[in-house]
Write a structure and sequence with these properties.
The protein has about 450 residues and is of the alpha/beta class. It has 2 domains: about 280 residues, no CATH class; about 55 residues, no CATH class. It is built from 9 helices and 21 strands. Strands 1, 4, 5, 7, 8, 10, 12, 14, 16, 18 and 20 form an 11-stranded mixed beta sheet that branches. The protein is globular. The N and C termini lie far apart (about 45 Å).
Amino acid sequence: MMVQLESEQETPLEIQLKKLYSEISAEKSPEREILEKWRTKSWERFLDIGLPTRHVEAYNYIRMRALCTQPYVRAEVTQIIPQRIQAAIYPECRHSYLVFVNGHYQQHLSNTEALPKQLVILKLSDAMRTYGALLNNQWAKSIKEEKDAFALLNGALHEEGIFLYLPPKMAVHAPLQIIHAIDTSENPMLLLPRLNLFMGAHAVLSLISTQVVLSGKGYGYGINSLCDITIEEGAHVQFTQTALDGGVDSWHFEALRATLKRNSSLKTVNVTEGSATVRNDYNVILMGENAEAILNGVSMLTGKNEAHSHIVMEHQAPHCRSMQLFKTVVSDSARSSFEGKILVRQLAQKTEAFQLNNNLVLSDHAFAYSKPNLEIFADDVKATHGSTVGQLDPEQLLYLATRGFLKTDAKNLLIYGFCQEVIDKIPLVSLVEAISKRARQFCLKTD
């Protein structure tokens, strides 16, 4: 059943979701009809699952009652000039970026000059005509196995995502930036960007996802995005996600689904400063021998911002490796949670799997919840999981004070040192510098 504030009443969110689905389904065009089958299946699966309540373990720390009062309207595509997004483009990506506006892919605002001509970039509706076999197989499997209601909602309500296909042995040397531009009115919009990425055998790609709020920071918009990645044998993906420009009233749900085949790898870094709620949901399957997945994240939260990470790392094949390292700094009345599971199937012998969640709590009113988890059915496995929650070391602060550091500067230096291990894993120099600067100025927002 869908969550309800009162037993006999639908919530504003439920009402709006049904309205959005009806509006999208009623619009007939060749582009929409080609995706209609999968929208319908996603919606039906969503209705079977229903919106989660706080009693659903994966949503224990999400304020679902507050979310269900959000009367989101359908996102509109606004006309923006290219100059408005220039500040969001990283120097390394000046000629390799794709732009979404309010969740809709905008080809005319994108720039692919630095990308190989063989790289396929299509709207999903166009991709279905040429690469329908790939997409149909992927969607059939994902909808059947999907357990998260918001990932299913993205499949049911997204209007025009993009399809990326790297042919075998293609190495894309320029990092590819995905820019999510938010340009909303006073009505709280629901944005639903979607990316389906297929990596051919031995292909290589570095992908960076960022968001920029052009207007509407105080209007309580919602983002429900999904990135689905299939990585063929010997292919390698680096995926960096940042959410640094969100409004304090915005809700951000981001799902990453990845399937790794033999000798392939996925390396991710997620950086966020939170919002009303940011929730990152990972489901990574190591299905080929000798595959490797490395997930990293750092959250720097002030005010009443929240950020939550939910991870399922599933080892299905032998000789695979996974590593999870997530760090969080919470101050003021901020809240975070980490729930990570390493699932090792019986056939996944010789697995190496590690998971660590470190939390730095700087206020009596801040909370950091942590729940690492192992579920192992194989008998030849190296696996560890751990969690720490602590405060800044008074002796280290005293030492820095004796060396002439002001109190705020000393705190910021220690906070940066805490976050640096994750920040340094970001593949873009300009982004490393920008995130490092934010970490070094963390206490300027709180003191």
